[in-house]
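Sample 1 of the test manifest.
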Amino acid sequence: MFNFSKNITAWIFLSPSLLIHFIVVAIPSVLSLGLCLTDWNGFGKINYIGFENFYELFDDRVFKKAVLHNVIWTVIFLTIPIILSLTTAYLLTGIRRGQLIYRLIFFFPYMLASIISCQIWKYIFHPIHGVGNWLSQYGIDFLEKSPFALKETSLYAVAFVDGWHFWGFLVVVYITGMYQVDHTYYESAELEGATKFQKFWYITLPMIRPIFVFSLMIIIIWSIPTFDYIYILTQGGPAYSSEVLATHLYSQAFDRFNVGYSSAIGTLMFIYVLIIVSIFGILQKMGWNI
Amino acid sequence: MRLKTKIRFQDKFCSLLFLTIFFIPWVQAQTKVTWWAESNADRDPVFQKKLVDVFNSSQNEIELVMEFKENLNDILRTAMVAGEGPDIVETPGPSYVKEYQDAGLLQSMQTYSDKYGWKDLLLPWSYNAGVFDGEFYSAPKTYETMILLYNKTLFQEKGWKIPTNLNEYEDLAKNVKSSGMNVFSYGSTGWQPTHEHLAGMYLNSVAGPDNVYQGLIGEKRWDSPEFVEAIELLRKHMVDEGYWSGSLENYYSLGWDDFHAQFANRNAAMMTIGTWTFQATENGFKDISDDWDWAPFPNLTSNGGEPSFLLALGTTLSINGQSKSPDSAAKVIDFIFKNKALVLDMANDFNFGEFVIPLKYTSADFGDNVNPKVRRYLIEFAEATGKGNYGYTTWTFWPSEPGVHIWKDMEVLWAGELNAQEYMEDHEKLWSKARRKNATLPVGKR
Amino acid sequence: MEYLMNFSFRSRDQIPNYIVLTIFTAFSILPIILLFLNSIKPQEEFGVNPLGFPSTIRWENYLDAWILGEYYNIFLNTLKLVIGTLILCLFSAGLAGFSLARLKPKGSNLFLIYLLVGVSIPAQMYILPLFLMWKQMNLMNTHIGLIIIYAGLNMPFATFLIRSYMVDLPEDLFDSAKMDGANTFQTFLLIAVPLSWPVFLTTALVVGLAVWNEFLFALTFIQDQSSKPISTILFAFQSRFENDWGLVSASAVMMVAPIAILFMFFQKRFIAGLTSGATKG
């Protein structure tokens, strides 16, 4: 009986956020998912067409590319920014003066709106007034052509800009965790003559595990619907070389009037998300502290 | 005495009442007509001052309100689907009109067209492009065509001439490149569909407008050799030869401002672009000694021949199916069509890059303030298209799905992941799908 | 307090740290310095001197942008949105985070999974139905309508962050409060919130930023020129004045400046809060 009333209170506490999120995200998403079996064009009659959208999707070259690019995107963000920001956060905790100013600077790019970061880097990589043209005067010509315009590099160039914007946020997240580590651990380790790396590996990393796992999770989750940077910088081009699921979905719905088809893409993304989330769920069941 | 005043008072009161009942509702009866337009810093004030204010002071029955929106297409669509939106619906072209019309969101303007005689005021091809299922649904707000700009001073210095066939075209390109310049200035950053400008030019200039017409009405497949050849030639010129801005990658990374500068700085000898460029090009050449001129994009067959002007509608005007005052909206449109002088004056403010309504102009309509290059274009365009020397742009005559395919997947072809044959086979597939779904757009008889 | 970290500081040990950190800093800050330089550059100089210091400084870019963008009004609108969202979002996410961390009701895993899924759905997918709903509920073109959307969008992140902090709060404080007869809401308000205020600050920072910078929803749900927030104005600037790098850069800087100042101001409290939270624990 006690447990029951405790559950009720707990759910009352959860209800405001649940309600808001339901109205804003869940209900319209369900409405939209319902369209995946139709050929709605966003304007008029809605016809039921069975699984035709899905059959078409499995033949869609661009869709396959987009899936691959989403995976690459996730892998990039799970490695480079994490390594960089863990290192940075750890180095930051090891200096006496100027911590504040360094942290301020690292965080700065994260405060920029996507439109601003994109504007800056588009300018820097511009073939006429960017860095590339300036460098080529000194015989360094690898940036002579804009990396956003080369199909081999476009996806990585966009990821670079997004990463540049994002990594400072990770630094702050990790440092939040590192400050919570009791410094007596380090003092005793130091007495035993541990190196910087050993202290990092045996004290810092295990102690910040909840926040570290949390960061892995948000990176995976955020990288699935990634849209802004790609849309602003390359619109998925050239030749779909930076197309991801969200931009493909958008282009189908807003350029080609295939709302039903784009809902089918959304449905598959949704299933993909469910799989990822259940993996986290299982890990948590196995006793991970997420 | 008292009685008299009382009567007088009643008298006054009654007449006041009378006025209130009959006069005030009449004042309030002014109908409001809303019109959403894509916003543009330079043009918005001109529209407000020369169209909206002039219209509103010309009568007191209708109040026209023009709202300038960023990202108009997306906002308009969501509003229309929700049963809202303005009385006058502005779209970027017939493929949008088709979707709205199919969904029953637009009102037929056939009765208004009959009543006001719009058919006789407009150039026939532009009127026909607005006829869906036998009824008039969309009126052209501006028309345009693709042209070849060249640096006139430079051409005179070097003794270069506008080519008339494929050989001359490729020779000229060779000459331009060997003098260290790019052949054409153009770029697609900021507006990816720029590729379709080039695709349309090559399809019409290489395969010929007659073939394109047959493709449009379904009598010729798009993977026929003449179309494949045209697309392959464009690929060769773009990717292998780097005609546009030196390389495919530079073409991808230059924006509006960059390619105008490149053309004006003699970093490129020519520019392939639509007539919406006039204003920007005039401005670009304002402070330099070089002069520019334009020519129709040449015929690119080996024998040569008359060049043709591609027909294109920039934006269109329709009446919202949900409009509470369609009669008044039609009156606004009619006001514009019947005011050639006002249209020309505004179009002139934009150097004929916008609001060039395809009315039947004669040379007498143009004042001295009109730029002679532009005047020559308007007159030559009318003459040539009158003789039947016209072709088709993809954004006015292609249904939405093949219309997106032609520029989006063009990049795949250029990236070498497909060849021209495969690309056009895909294209044909989307066309037959569009035909099946009855999504094709009106094409006037050739 | 803030330098009581993982080392007893010997300055020789710190030198490599400083070197690496400075390189990383350059990577982060140089592009932004370039943005600032561009914002005071006269238009003519962009062609000849794209990357360096401007030879003449033109502050008028800011004045032009201020007037063209009607920034006074715009700032007020944006502030309204940020504050409204923070109140709504932090309050409900705080309750939810507390519930998940301390009360651990049956089905809380389900709730977490639900939130995770919610974050991963691309906005492009549900924006059209949402628009139709907002139209029905007369929330279009209102700030409160957009505030509800922003609160919903940021809810999952805020909940996770607050929850993961509250999980680590010591149990005995809550137990003793309960023994003193406090009800659940009182323990939340009087114990959990004061102890976790650093995480509320962090959350407020991140959510506030997200609102300040968001433009897709702002563009769709606010159409009246007079109620538009700052991001949509910058977006409009980039397409309307595409060629005018100085003007666009100046308006970009104006969009960043208030946030930057606020962050510098909060930085100390932010960190002091974090460290005191850690040492008290």
